[in-house]
Write a structure and sequence with these properties.
Number of domains of chain B: 1
Strand order of the largest sheet of chain A: 1-6-7-8-2
Structural class of chain B: mainly alpha
Radius of gyration of chain B: 16 Å
Strand content of chain B: under 5%
CATH architecture of one domain in chain A: 3-Layer(bba) Sandwich
Number of strands of chain B: 0
Largest sheet of chain A: 5 strands, mixed
Shape of chain A: globular
Helix content of chain B: 55-70%
Number of helices of chain B: 5
Largest sheet of chain B: none
Oligomer: heterodimer
Structural class of chain A: alpha/beta
CATH class of one domain in chain A: Alpha Beta
Number of strands of chain A: 22
Number of helices of chain A: 17
């Protein structure tokens, strides 16, 4: 493995941002079109090394890796900032940007007709957030109800949130408008390595049989990494149980398909144990309670909280979050002002431990206070079929076809037997468990922030990964812990996209979006005209 | 709304100056005040200036009150109902002849018409259309500079 500093060699001829060049070169005769030991072990690559391996090179100034909502909002911003589709490529293993998001929302009990946990003005298909989802819904349905809800939220009504289907329909329209399909290249991104002459090589493994070689290298000045969550992790005791018993049926994650639980509940009496106190737990709980009501079921629910919130909590009167019955209540993932108000402003100035402490104060698992959920849970508590307990699981075993959990509560251990355990904790894996991110950490100079994720600057440039005039940007969940907390949300991805676009405008890659351009582009959005 | 104190003040001054100024320019001649048009303009713009200047003080108070909110946000309705205390204060000052420079008599209907005709468009613009020309505004605590 070679170890060179970016400043150690003068950039020769970085891939130019202009003019546009997207060309496929023929594979060199010598290599077989796959990664060689030399490439795998080198932090810095030369054009000759890639050519010698027989890997074809495609030149394009900007590459976004991921292809989900993070990539989508970034190229959307750049299209609006004058970048034509042929100067950008989105490398992705999904066919449309909301595919993973839709899968996760659907299995975690938010089908298209249900409302997601997102603000009315957080529109990934509209960089202006105007018209908001509420206004669009009001116009479409010829109803003032959504607007009234926005007017009186959150004091006299729950926060307005859009239906998942409305979000997907908007994304589809915007994807067509900006020519997303023209930019999309499907395949698996294996790594991003710095190029000695500046810029980067992004190695794509195309689907089998679609390319003559096993790998294709994208040579670009800019790379954007938005690969989403590095992976899902189970609670340790649940993972141990699944591994030991090879039972993936009775212990399930809310983020994997678990319809069999609801289907079985319709045929017999079940006891279901829920783990976690966040939005996903609320959603699963709602599904169980809705089904119970709709089909006259007798399902019992035991809700286990590791941290039981019994009331308002926080260090002082100015930092007190509402809570009760086990849950911490908050409209969105973070206090709302992290997306634009004083918390965003404060976090931007904090470094190291100070930032980590602030994250701890405002973070933690929370769920929105929704009047319908509260009524359902009240009914469950009164009827004795919904029980919340606080504790930690010491042991899990199979007994008579049921999962017996030994739970340590404040008064000592208790036994809880359930037919199914649904893990709604949504623990995330370490970024190093993602192959591309691990490679960035090991070979491309990337480092970790105070929360252990990718360390990015305020403009989302990946610290330590510069290559001549080239820059890697990263946005989304992998950058949590940076100067901006709400990264893994629609609005957070747009905030990152705006910072990245502004930085790229400073570097001459696109135009600055000022008031005139913004307004004229908004009009084009209104009339579904290309940017 | 997710304002910082600087954002509150900047947005208040900018919107009242631009939208308030345009509205006042249009409606001042037809306000029910028995005075020459020049005097109507003078008084109407003085009322607008009073609302704007006092508004800076109000924004400081709102910012303080916002600190008790966990979200550190300013709900849409708060931005609307604050027209009541703000309007009352300006009206009381007019009644007490404490607004310098007023030459005529600002009647209650004239004040109400102008105040609402300015306040409501300002509130509406701040809650949506403002984001169209100023795409960074909502992410920067509503600061314009």
């Amino acid at each position: 493995m070679t170890k060179d500093e970016p400043g150690a060699r003068a950039p020769e001829a970085a891939p130019a941002a202009k003019p546009v060049t997207v060309q496929m070169r023929s594979p060199a005769a010598v290599g077989g079109g796959d990664l060689t030991e030399e490439l795998l072990n080198s932090d810095w690559w030369t054009d000759a090394m890639v050519q010698a391996a027989g890997i074809p090179i495609v030149d394009v100034p900007f590459v976004s890796v991921g292809g989900g909502i993070g990539s989508f909002v970034t190229v959307d911003y750049l299209r609006i900032a004058s970048v034509p589709p042929d100067r950008m490529r989105v490398l992705s293993n999904i066919e449309f940007p909301w595919k993973t998001y839709e899968y996760l929302t659907r299995v975690s009990q938010i089908p298209r007709g249900e409302r997601i946990r997102s603000d009315s003005a957080s529109r990934p298909d509209n960089i202006w957030g105007f018209p908001s989802y509420a206004l669009a819904e009001a116009v479409r349905d010829k109803s003032l109800k959504p607007l009234w809800q926005v007017l009186v939220e959150p004091i006299w009504a729950d926060y307005y949130t859009p239906k998942a289907g409305q979000v997907f329909a908007g994304l589809e329209r915007e994807a067509k408008r900006i020519g997303f399909r023209e930019m999309l290249v499907t395949g698996q991104v294996r790594m991003v390595r710095r190029r000695q002459s500046g810029g980067y090589f992004t190695i794509l493994t195309p689907p089998p049989g679609t390319e003559p070689t096993r790998r294709v290298a994208y040579r670009s000045q800019f790379v954007h990494v938005a690969v989403g969550y590095p992976g899902l992790r189970f609670l340790p005791e649940l993972q141990a149980f699944r591994t030991q018993h090879q039972d993936f049926h009775h212990v399930v994650s809310a983020y994997e398909d678990h319809e069999h639980v609801y289907a079985l509940a319709r045929t017999k009496h079940l006891v279901v144990m829920l783990r976690g106190g966040g939005i996903v737990a609320s959603r699963v709980l709602q599904r169980l309670m809705d089904d119970r009501e709709r089909f006259g079921l007798s399902t019992e629910i035991v809700h286990l909280f590791r941290t039981y919130v019994s009331g308002s909590h926080g260090p002082n009167a100015w930092n007190r979050r509402k809570g009760g019955n086990g849950f911490a209540y908050q409209g969105f993932n973070y206090p709302k002002s992290v997306w634009g108000g004083q918390l965003k402003s404060r976090m931007r100035k904090l470094e190291g431990d100070d930032r980590a402490t602030e994250y701890k104060l405002m973070g933690g698992t929370s769920t929105p206070y929704r009047r319908r959920w509260q009524a359902q849970m009240r009914e469950g508590r009164t009827g004795g079929w919904y029980r919340a307990i606080a504790g930690t699981v010491e042991e899990m075993r199979l007994e008579n076809g049921m999962i017996a959990s030994r739970v340590m509560i404040s008064g000592g251990p208790v036994e809880v037997a359930a037919d199914f355990v649904i893990d709604c904790t949504g623990l995330e894996a370490d970024i190093a468990e993602h192959r591309l991110l691990a490679d960035l950490l090991e070979h491309s100079g990337a480092g970790r922030n105070p929360l252990g994720r990718l360390n990015v600057e305020r403009d989302f440039e990946l610290r330590g990964a510069a290559s001549g005039p080239g820059v890697i940007y990263a946005s989304g969940a992998t950058t949590l812990g940076g100067y901006f907390p709400g990264v893994d949300t629609f609005l957070g991805l747009q905030i990152a996209a705006q910072e990245i676009t502004d930085d790229l405008a400073r570097r001459g890659f696109c135009r600055h979006i000022g008031p005139v351009r913004s307004t004229s582009q908004w009009l084009r959005w209104v009339f579904s005209r290309q940017p | 709304m997710l304002p910082t104190l600087a954002g509150r003040v900047q947005t208040r001054v900018a919107l009242f100056a631009v939208i308030g100024g345009l509205v006042t320019l249009l409606i001042a001649p037809v306000l029910p005040i028995a005075a020459p048009v020049a005097d109507k303009y003078r008084d109407a713009f003085l009322v607008l200036a009073t609302v704007t200047v006092l508004g800076i003080g109000w924004e400081c108070l709102y910012h303080l009150l916002m600190q008790w909110r966990w979200e550190k946000d300013w709900p849409t309705l708060f931005g609307l109902v604050t027209l009541v205390p703000e309007g009352l204060l300006v009206w009381l000052l007019l009644e007490a002849k404490a607004v310098p420079g007023i030459v005529g008599t600002v009647t209650a209907p004239a004040f109400c018409i102008q105040f609402l005709a300015v306040w409501l468009p300002v509130w509406l613009v701040a809650n949506g259309p403002m984001r169209v020309p100023f795409i960074r505004w909502r992410f920067r605590g509503e600061r314009l500079m």
